[in-house]
Design a protein that fits this description.
With about 230 residues, the protein is an alpha+beta fold. It is about 45% helix and about 15% strand. It is built from ten helices and five strands; from the N terminus they run αααββββααααβααα. The protein has helices spanning about 10-20, 25-30, 30-50, 115-130, 130-140, 140-145, 170, 185-190, 195-205, 205-215, and strands spanning about 55-60, 80-90, 95-100, 105-110, 175-185. Strands 1-2-3-4-5 form a five-stranded antiparallel sheet. The longest helix has 22 residues, at about 30-50. InterPro entries: CHP02453 (IPR012808), UCP028451 (IPR015996). This is TIGR02453 family protein.
Length: about 230
């Protein structure tokens, strides 16, 4: 069994890193970081095992602490958070899970970060034709209590080829289809954090099921899978 909770030492290290974000300090504390990274990765692995009990997870990816500063104005070399994502398996299962751990700014997220051009068009055409099922899913009480409102980048007006007066233009102009749940540090350090993140991800399934159906069929409902 992997690590089942995030220790306070992980948040404490990230707080120290945020005020000492330089290579000299990091190199002097690298052994401490490596030990913490191992524990955090174990937590993520344990979360993946819980996810596998109710979803088909293909892989987990932990993101590196090192920042790519080549094209960034912010030249600090290290991220001040731990983060990882979980990919669903197969062509029929769409959507992804993400968890970031950062003092005061921890959140879980699920949905569609960067739909490719074809997927984005297909989603928009579905919403143009009939958004009632989509709204029903995301407005269900248990779903909203967990995830709140749909978030993500959106256009200021209608996408090309779509009517800006369409009654569902608020959804059609979205470029991302994401849900985010924030957690306090107290919640992160709780023994219930892992199960609560897992419960949140379990509650996203009606949304994933609908979006997977949309993205694997044409507008007539015919399967695109071979």
């Amino acid at each position: 069994m992997g690590t089942e909770r995030i220790g306070s030492e992980a948040l404490e290290f990230l707080n120290k890193l945020s005020v000492n974000n330089n290579r000299d300090w990091f190199e002097a504390h690298k052994s401490e970081f490596k030990a913490l990274e191992k524990k955090v990765k174990s937590f993520y692995s344990n979360l993946m095992e819980e996810l596998k009990k109710h979803d088909d997870i293909e892989k987990m990816k932990m993101f590196r602490i090192y920042r790519d500063v080549r094209f960034s104005k912010d030249k600090t070399p290290y991220k001040t958070h731990f983060a990882g994502s979980f990919s669903r398996a197969g062509k029929a299962l769409r959507g992804g899970y993400y968890l970031r751990i950062k003092p005061g700014e921890t959140f879980a997220a699920a949905g569609f970060w960067e739909p490719n051009k074809e997927d984005l068009y297909r989603i928009r055409k579905e919403l143009e034709m009939d958004a009632s099922e989509f709204r029903s899913v995301i407005q269900a009480e248990d779903f909203r209590n967990t995830w709140g409102d749909l978030v993500g980048e959106e256009l200021k007006t209608a996408p090309k080829g779509f009517d800006k007066e369409h009654p569902d233009i608020d959804l059609i102009r979205k470029k991302q289809f994401i849900f985010v749940r924030n957690f306090t540090d107290k919640e992160v350090l709780s023994s219930e954090f892992l199960s609560e993140v897992d419960r949140s991800f379990r509650n996203i399934r009606p949304y994933f099921d609908l979006m997977s159906e949309i993205l694997t069929t044409d507008l007539n409902g015919e399967s695109l899978l071979r």
